[in-house]
Amino acid sequence: MEKELKTGYEWCLEAKLRILNLVDWDSSWPFYEDSFYKEKIDAKTFYGRIGKCKVKPNSTPRKTEMYLEYRMYGLVPYNISEIQRAIQFGHAVVRYGRMTKDINPIEKIYNKWADNDETFIILNGGTTNTNPEKLGSLNQHLNNFIDNEILVKDFYEPDLGDQLTAFCFLVDERVFNKELYPDFISNEYPRPLRHKLTEKEMSQWEVENKKNYDAWVEKIGGVKNAFLREYLRPMKLA
Asked: What per-residue string of b and e applies to 207-220 under the rule 16 or more CB within 10 Å gives b?
């Protein structure tokens, strides 16, 4: 019978084990990350290696930046043709790539996306208008992304009066993969039967809830990813 072969990451995902320090992963490969995410091994080899690592049970294994799946998201106006939406988005993507040149690790992540992932997600950004008194929704979205320190690249179409026609940004799987990275679920609000919550009880609930939320934010990659998950949730495809 042929042995089942999986990567260390796939075995950890199945066993619900998270290695706390990936440097502990034992392999003859020159780079431990490459081995953990790419080398196919059998179960016996896996359990031999995992026995040398400090792990957290009942936990989703983490991916390092270069092994996350990425998608290039973008927003475009609603009132241009489908082909023009794709073209305008394409302009922004090309300029995003040029912008990242010699800026590590962003350049490496962009190249990883371009070489392996290549997925586009084009969203409806609404109206475009650079007039500050009648600022379009697409322009407002761009400002919100900039205010929240999301790396974006915009494009203004000369043939449309230099109006904003697209902007794009890279998103990793911790934002869009809700199966591996479920949404945060708040602690159930305590509802005692015989009395109202005291200030102390309410404070304890708030502290515990905040602690759990902060741990969730760390798990999904930080406050920028938390912003993206919430911001992108109601948006529709262009």
From this structure: eeeeeeeeeebebb
Element (H, E) at 112: helix 106-112
Helix, strand, coil percentages, rounded to 5, for the chain? 45, 15, 40
Q: What is the pLDDT of residue 130?
A: 92
CA distance 71 to 114: 9
Q: Are strands 70-76 and 119-124 parallel, antiparallel or unpaired?
A: parallel
Same domain, 157 and 190: no
Two structure tokens written together for 31: 């780079």
E strand spans, the chain: 17-19, 55-57, 70-76, 119-124, 153-157, 163-172
Q: In which domain, by residue range, is 54 found? A: 8-62
Name the pTM for this structure.
Answer: 0.91
Is there a domain that residue 232 lies in?
A: no
